Amino acid sequence: ALCKQINAWEGRRGRRVSVLAHSMGGLDARYAITKLGGDSLVETLLTVATPHHGSPLADLLLSATRSVHNVLRTHFPALLGNLPDGGRCLSVQSAEEFNAHIHDVPDVRYLSVAGDRGSAFRTSPELLPSYLYISRQPGIAGGANDGMVSVGSASWGTRLRTLDMDHLHQINFPLPHRWLSVAPTYGYVLRVWEELAIQATHTSLLNAGPIETSRPDQRTSFGEKHHDWLAPVPA
Q: Which end of the chain offers a freer environment for a tag, N or C, measured as fewer CB atoms within 10 Å?
C-alpha cells in the first residue's frame, strides 16, 4: 500500500520521497523498503516511536495468565487488542528476527525519534502502568519510554531527538483529561511533526546546528526559544 501511494502521488515527479512513520508503521516501512522495492521510491525514512527492538509490553501480554491477559485487553483494547498475531510481532525476540532479515538499504537514510515524558506523573493515565513496567525492564527495550516503546527500542539509524510526548500525545489521541499530565496542545504536536518533516527532507539540518526543542513548557509560553542538538545514535 505504501509503494502504491507513493507511485500515485503526482507531485513526486519521479523523485524519491521522505517517509515519516509512527510506531508499527516504521516496521512496515522498513519492510517495504527492503523487500518490496521501496528503496527506489524512498530516500529518507524517519520513524517515530517505532519498536525496532521490540516491547517488553508485548512479551508481558504473550506470557500473561488469562486474568492478566484480560485486564490488559480491557485497559488497552485499541493499543493491544488489534495487533497482528496478537502482539507477537512486537515481542523482543520477534524484533531480533525481523532485524536479522530486514537489512537497511545503503542508499536510504534512516532517521528516528523517540518519546519520553521523563516522569510517570507527566504521562497519560492510560499509559501509566505500561510506562512503569517498561521503565523497570532491562536491556535496550526497557528504561526510559513513552508508555509503549522505550527510547532504546525506538532508536534506529540516526536518532534526531527524544520528544517530550508519550505514545498517545504523538498521534494527538483525543484524551478528555489532557490537563492531568500537562499534555502538549494539539497544535503543538502538529508543529513538531512539521519540524520533523523539514528535518527529513533537508539533509543540512541533520549535520549541525540547533533545532527547536520538543518540550512545550520551554517554548512559546516563556516567549523565547530553547534548543536541542542533534545526537547521532548508532543502530
A: N
Would you give the end-to-end CA distance of the chain in angstroms?
Answer: 26
Residue 15: alpha-carbon gap to chain centroid: 26
- How far apart are the C-alpha atoms of 159 and 112, rounded to whole Å? 5
Residue 116 DSSP SS3 = coil
How many beta carbons lie within 10 A of that of residue 179, not counting itself? 8
Which pLDDT belongs to residue 87?
65
Q: What is the DSSP string of 131-156?
A: HHHHHT--STTSSSBSSSSBHHHH--
**In 3-state terms, what secondary structure has residue 85?**
helix
Give the strands of the sheet with 42-48, arranged side by side: 17-22, 42-48, 109-115, 158-163
CA distances to 37, 50, 55, 212 from 225, rounded to whole Å, are 41, 28, 34, 7
Q: Mind listing the pLDDT tens digit for each residue in 170-189?
A: 999 887 777 777 888 889 99
Cell 517517509 maps to which residue?
19
CA distances, 133 to each of 128, 141, 148 (Å): 9, 11, 10
Q: Find the helix or strand (DSSP H, E) in which 158 lies.
A: strand 158-163
Cα 103 from Cα 146, distance rounded (Å):
26
pLDDT (tens digit, 9 = 90+) per residue, 23-45?
999 999 999 999 999 999 999 99
Closest-CA residue to 50 (of 28, 65, 35): 28
Task: Determine the average pLDDT of the residues in 46-67.
Answer: 83
Q: Give mean pLDDT, residues 202-228.
A: 39
